[in-house]
Design goal:
Number of domains: 1
Shape: globular
Number of helices: 3
Radius of gyration: 19 Å
Structural class: mainly beta
Largest sheet: 5 strands, antiparallel
Bound molecules: zinc ion
Order of helices and strands: HHEEEEEEHEE
Helix content: 10-25%
Strand order of the largest sheet: 6-5-4-7-8
Strand content: 25-35%
Amino acid sequence: MKLPGTPYKDVDLKEGRIPYVEDKPDAKYRFSAGIAMSRFLEELKNGRIMGLKCLNCGRIYVPPRTFCSYCFKPTSEWVQVKDTGIVNTAVVSYIAADRGRMDKPLVVAVIELDGASPGMGILHKLGNVDPEDVKNGKIFGKRVRAVWRPEEERTGSITDILYFEPMEGD
Ligand SMILES: [Zn+2]
């Protein structure tokens, strides 16, 4: 399907087809992900997905949160959850990082991991999935597993997990 309008790409910016002001401030900065998210990201290097548990109600938050939004009490116990789970929701995206239209779409999903409380989900890509199965709803509720980047290439980023893929026999 051809959408109306004129798509543009990074090359259009580089070659001056789109006017903009190039400014390179000499700014140095660090970004803190916060106590909970920092540990979560750090543990991904070890191939572990960590959540925080509320000791009052038992809910396990993944991604971790420092307080329970049901009890308004701090969460205090770290727990490891599995790198398998179910697809809560998914969408087919044709928009690339440079805002151009992709011929081969990306499937993005919310995955409820085994061990986390129901309704908790992480946003990630799905691989080895037919986009038609998203459109017709077959992907919803499917069991998936994380496909990890090789250990020596991990950086403590959510992209240490390359994508989630459907589990065999499901
Ligand atoms: Zn709670």
